[in-house]
Amino acid sequence: MSKTLFDKVWDTHVVRKIEGGPDVLFIDRHLIHEVTSPVAFLGLKSRGITVLYPERTFATADHNTPTINQHLPVEDPLSANQLKALESNSNEYGISHWGLGHQKNGIVHVVGPEYGITQPGATIVCGDSHTSTHGAFGAIAFGIGTSEVEMVLSTQCIMQPKPKKMRINVNGKLGIGVTPKDVALFIISQLTTSGATGYFVEYAGDVFENMTMEGRMTVCNLSIEMGARGGMIAPDETTIEYVKGREFSPKGEAWDRALAYYKTLKTDADAVFDKELTFNGSTIEPMITYGTNPGMGMGISQDIPDAAHAEGGAETYAKSLNYMGFSEGDHMIGKKVDFVFVGSCTNGRIEDFRAFTSIVKGKQKADDVTVWLVPGSHIVEAQIKEEGLLDILTEAGFTLRQPGCSACLAMNDDKIPAGKYAVSTSNRNFEGRQGPGSRTLLASPLVAAAAAITGVVTDPRTLMETVEENVNELV
Amino acid sequence: MAYDKFNVLRSTAVPLPIENIDTDQLIPARFLKATERVGFGDNLFRDWRYNSDNTPKKDFILNNPVYSGKILVGGKNFGSGSSREHAAWAVYDYGFRCVVSSFFADIFRNNCLNIGVLPVQVSAEFADQIFNAIHADPNTELEVNLAEQTITLLATGEKETFEISPYKKDNMLNGFDDIDYLQSIKPEIEEFAKQLPL
Fold it and tell me: DSSP letters along B36-90, please?
């Protein structure tokens, strides 16, 4: 019987099917962090059970960590306590722990792929909804709750019904200034924030085939923002080139076996999806959000839609625009920006900093904008320095912070103040997401860069006469 | 046994007819710093419930003594966003045992089922009926019967059936959870692991 990529990976990992219930799904790789794991470890203790395969779980601290002065003790006692709990729990059960200050420390969805923990055809979970990121490698990867973290620790399995399958095809040549982030925000704006709930998505078409792994990770990362449990892209030469030789990638004979498995990971020609959508990539503009969920996005040159054209009730829509301090019909271009945040598991990779730098090169940061540039990991941080990006950024008036989730969810001190506007390369524009009362405009690193030097929402294409040149020089 | 058994719940309900209520509203990230599962109910809907000086916002429904009960009725796409189980813990800890909506986000629904909060998905029409009934009379009682898979507006007898997998239903009726089940099949899991490609 013909199978989709998703079927192949899922079916390979089903330990047992329960009639009238979920499948028992085996998990190859489990990532944990300080926020959603402590109660799971408490659960193990209260039940008197232990970790079944500690070598399949990896711990990194990222959500509440400071992004400056990481060599100093963490000041917030609650955060410090969570970090300590992650360390002591990891040590107690023999789990690899990459705490603050460790060379491998960084955002869980950035370091997982960097060290080869993420592999094609694997099942990967983490107590974090953006685990969908790892789907870029053709893995089934999704976020789980803390009860499920406890399940994976104790039995390496979770229990879930098999989701429905959706394929989203995007073909065509992307326009100048259009990044993987824009492709994802465009798709979400078309499907709405709940349009893919109940589905696991496969992204197909030449737009994704032509993307780097970094770009694919950005796209898959945002799958959850349209409600999908996860999204995946079939592994190809780009994927294999990326994973080969990384620290935790299979080696020797194990690599040959893995490679044989990876080659099977594509959707059969006549496989059927529950839903299939196709978009023309050449029509996508640089995107920006104007509301309080990621589905409320549009091309940057557009005006904020009328309530009549909005998804969701008029009351909900009005509440959202009111929170943002916007009105129907407003232009986004020219709106004042107070903060710019570049980073997160969505856009905290080297390519994102290259893109940002390509725009700001030779220009100056706007005086009245606070800009936080936060690499996703120490590897990204080192690359920024080695490639000479830091020199260009410094010249333009920017500084680089240290790796972590930072202002994406503002659990640490990187909070956008109430009422202020932030152009953010992160993934959620929910009310208060970046700090109580904060107002978030989600966008690509290019749009973030354009705002950082102009102080207002700016179409990056207007600054891009020399961009291709700059990108070439930087690469 | 991991949580309270759920059988029949008869209660008034708190209506929150807003769509896309996300997990950052249910519990903002800055309140996720505990290492134990305690006190999350205090911060349920924190930023809708309290001003920045921690005084209650008078116009928010949880601060209105007219509305109370063990059932929370939310708008469409309830619980979107983060995987934080803390959102479900906050709902439970506040005192709700059942959330009713015309549509739930996946992970939130799963998390609720894993901790003994029953997510009841109803039609958009029935959700509106419930909102209208509570609007007309805040003392309106709902009855959620898990064994029968029904939710009833007691005053009028209007009812609807809801979906739940037989496995999860059995778990909730008996207060079992998935970890109990998985522990019982551990040898099978270990055998399975030996033949995996990765």
Answer: SS-SGGGGTTHHHHB-TTSPBPTTSGGG-TT---SEEEE-SSBTBS---THHHHH
Rounded mean pLDDT of chain B?
96
Task: Write down the residue that tokens 């990044």 correspond to.
Answer: A179
Q: Is B25 on the interface with A (CB under 8 A)?
A: yes
Chain B residues in contact with A312 (beta carbon < 8 A): 19-20, 76
Pairing of strands A29-32, A23-26: unpaired
Structure tokens at B61: 């429904």
A374 three-state secondary structure: coil
Q: In which element (H, E) is residue A378 found? A: helix A378-386
Write down the pLDDT at residue A475: 45
> What phi and psi values does residue A203 have, to the nearest 5 degrees?
-95, 130
What average pLDDT does the structure give for chain A?
96
Sign of the CA dihedral running A268, A269, A273, A279: positive
Going by C-alpha positions, the residue among A442, A372, A439 that lies closest to residue A182 is A442
Burial of B100 (0-12, 13-18, 19+ CB in 10 A): buried
Closest alpha carbon within chain A to B85: A145
**Nearest chain B Cα to A145, which residue?**
B85
Contacts of B185 (CB under 8 A, 6+ apart): A15, A16, A24, A155
First to last CA, chain A: 45
Pairing of the two strands A29-32 and A57-60: parallel
For residues A146-160, one letter each, b for 16 or more C-beta atoms within 10 angstroms of the residue's C-beta and e for the rest, the string is: bbbbbbbbbbbbbbb
**Which residues are registered as beta bridge partners of A139?**
none
> pTM of the full predicted structure?
0.96
Mean pLDDT of A334-343: 98
Nearest to A319 among B18, B85, B114 (CB): B18
Give the separation between CA A410 and CA B30, rounded to whole angstroms: 7
Q: What is the dihedral of CA B134, B138, B140, B144, to 10 degrees?
A: 70
Short-list B40, B41, B39, B63, CA closest to B51: B63
Between CA A435 and CA A411 the distance in angstroms is 8
DSSP A417: P
**Chain A residues with beta carbon closer than 8 angstroms to that of B124:** none
User: How far, in Å, are A415, A459, B26, B185 from residue A143 at the CA level?
Assistant: 24, 33, 18, 23
Closest by Cα among B144, B41, B157, B31 to B89:
B41
Burial B126-141 (b: 16+ CB within 10 A, else e): bbebbbebbeeebebb
**Alpha helix segments (H runs only) across chain B:** 23-26, 46-49, 86-94, 106-115, 124-136, 166-174, 178-184, 186-193
How far, in Å, CA of A315 to CA of B58, rounded?
A: 19
**Residue A312 to residue B76, Cβ atoms within 8 A:** yes
A231 - beta bridge partners? A201
User: Is-contact B61 B14, C-beta < 8 A?
Assistant: yes
* Contact status, residue A453 vs residue A364, Cβ threshold 8 Å: yes
Decide: A140 and A231 in contact? Cβ < 8 Å: no
Closest residue to A85, CB basis, from B35, B47, B165: B35
Backbone angles phi, psi at A306, to 5 degrees: -70, 155
What does the block give as tokens for A153?
A: 């620790």
Q: d(Cα B108, Cα A42) in Å, to the nearest integer?
A: 21
pLDDT tens, position by position, A422-439: 999 999 999 999 999 999
Per-residue model confidence as pLDDT tens digits over B26-81: 999 999 999 999 999 999 999 999 999 999 999 999 999 999 999 999 999 999 99
**Of B6, B5, B43, the residue nearest B25 (C-alpha):** B43
Provide the ipTM.
0.96
